[in-house]
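B., you asked whether I could sanity-check this one before it goes into the benchmark set. Here's the sequence:
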Amino acid sequence: MRAELVEGDIAGRLKSILEEVSKTAVDKEVGGVEVFMGVVKGRVGGFKVEKLVYTAYKEVAERVLERIAREEAEKNSLEAVVILHRLGEVRPGEATVVIVAAGRGRDEVNRATRVIIDRVKKEAPIFKLEVREDGEYWIIGDETRVKRARS
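And here's what the prediction gave me:
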């Protein structure tokens, strides 16, 4: 199990992550590997998104991500879970999060990947500011937007 907050490109690391996770299949009953990659939307609510800005207390957030990976691996009998999440500025079309899960079959890995992304959005102390043409909004959970107050 591995979880990491990363400044810079994470999509470019996908090939090496898949190679790493695929090695778990050699001596184990792994028949399914699933990848979820979240990207910055170009438009939200009809407004152009300029960027997302992610901040976090890195050590705490990585511990939470590792706990999520470990717990979901145990619940779903997964052999490997990797969670990478971006920090800093991320532009539309760029990857914000990558989750890779490896397990016995597609049902287990699909279910786990969906739960993992939901838990990351709700539990990890990673803060997301959406900068778009009509203002700046803090994103809470998955969809709640709170307009950033200017001082």
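One thing to flag: The chain has a mean pLDDT of 93. Otherwise nothing jumped out at me.
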